[in-house]
Amino acid sequence: MNLDHIRNISIIAHIDHGKSTLADRLLQMTETVTAREMKEQLLDSMDLEREKGVTIKASAVRMIYRRGDQEYEINLIDTPGHVDFSYEVHRALQACEGAILVVDASQGIQAQTMAHLFAALEQDLTIVPVINKIDLPAAMPDDVAQEIENLLGTPAEDIPHISAKAGINVEAVLAQVVDQVSPPQGDVNAPLQALVFDCHYDPYKGVIAYVRVVNGTINGTPALKAMVSGKTMEPIEIGVLTPAMFATPRLHAGEVGYIATGLKSVQDLDVGDTITLAAEPSAERLPGYQPMKPMVFAGLYPSNPDDYVDLRDALEKLQLNDAALAYEPETSQALGFGFRLGFLGLFHMEIIQERLEREYDLDVIFTAPSVEYRVVKTDGSVITIDSPAELPEPTLIEQVEEPWCDLSIFTPSEYIGTVMDLITKRRGELRNQNWLDAKRVDISCTIPLSEIVVDFYNDLKARTRGYASMDYTLDGYRASDMVKLDILVNQQPVDALSVIVHRDDAFYKGQRLVSKMKEIIPRQMFEVPIQAAVGNKIISRANVKAMRKDVLSKCYGGDVSRKRKLLEKQKAGKKRMKMVGSVEIPQEAFMSVLRLEDD
């Protein structure tokens, strides 16, 4: 198709503002899918996405929009709204010339609306604002339109008011995309340059790369080359997404499609790589993507040690599909061989765990999440650690620096008090309050990253009845009085249960963790002490009582010394067991560290 009749766009918005529903209506309107194939959130193909009601993976689809006697090819990428999947949004935006900014008519501009908007403006994309959910009783489309005008300068009367769910005025969105978004630039006769913006592994077709062709043309299935990895490939097929994979004879500059590379090793191709023709390679590759820096780290171990190789293979395939996931091997005294994983947030970690269990049928154990600390040692050297096990001895530490972030919270004014209380309880420092209108306020503060990664978002939603939203960016490191809290079971430290906490919180967290472990660890034939320690100092202790066998049941009558002799014999046997026996720690114990704040 002529380049002037192609439009490449993404849908961006805050979580639950109606991106996927709008994508559904656009697919119906352009007759990309038949009525029989249509279902809600069609582009959310993963079971997890449908269950949780959130988009996890960006999904691309080609639509043909007819206006009068003109036909337009619109390549649409539906993106996630959750802060933990912002990397998917950044990758999608780099494959586009425009973005549809969806804003909820009842909630107005929220934290992630701003974050995704700034990401789109950094890529110099054309923004097409749209006000959705105008059929809600609480909708304020005119007020929200004025908000968008103040933010973007787009005249309020030019912003389409739509209801994606009811299908009201959705055609106006496509008309604005065609009129406002510029067609892609590119030379179909230049050497081939195709940007890989996503991948997944198919057992029959190998690595499947989703590409935006920037320059050149792919005709048929010629030999191709990945410019970063240097691997050559004989593709099985090329095609477009409708949204199912549909083979086509060619892809040219400006188009979005897929290449079934036939590569069997997942290390042979990375997201951000440039694919070119092996016979006539391009002189230079495309810029690609900045790798994302993980914010949260956790240990991952197979419940059955024999599953280690299967877990490693599963992580390789997952990393191909989720470029924000980072991992490396590690060993634990308590759990054996496993991996240290890096995530963008706790929700990201939860999704990875669910995908490993569902898609790869693995039973896994996660250790407590941690952030990345900087440790200045007494000899002047600086090391970076993301696991409590790596923290040096206290005598070797000059200071520990923890990451802080800029946090922005959008909330209705009646919840200001409870939001401020939440911030101060988590060691946050208020910067300013910006009143957006008479009812909504933007609270800016700085807060340690470790205080918000576990359950800050859930707590915020609970305190504000779901109305508040948040966004955060890393601000730098500050010196803090951080210590390692060790958990000892039967006087043996369990490395997988250690956490790094602020000294002021150590006693409180140690006490709660010991109490929780006492409930979880089953009773043994001997008494099991559970202790929380900072360095050599025990700060909390609880005992799991021993099971008592009734050794006197067959002892009828007789002198009391006979009974005492039997009890002393039992006591000696238990003592010997205690010296040589090890305590079985159930999986829930390792998860209890995660759920400390739930009570």
How large is the count of helical segments? Answer: 14
Shape: globular
CATH fold category name of the largest domain: Rossmann fold
The first-level CATH class name of the largest domain:
Alpha Beta
* SS strand fraction: 25-35%
Overall strand count = 30
At the fourth level of CATH, the homologous superfamily of the largest domain is P-loop containing nucleotide triphosphate hydrolases
Q: Name the poorly predicted regions.
A: none
- Average pLDDT metric: 82
What is the helix content? Answer: 25-40%
Distance between the termini: 59 Å
Largest sheet: 8 strands, antiparallel
Number of structural domains: 5
Question: Could you walk me through the main structural features you see in this protein, from its secondary elements to its overall organization?
Answer:
- Helices cover 26% and strands 33% of the residues.
- It is an alpha+beta fold.
- Strand 17 and strand 18 form a beta hairpin.
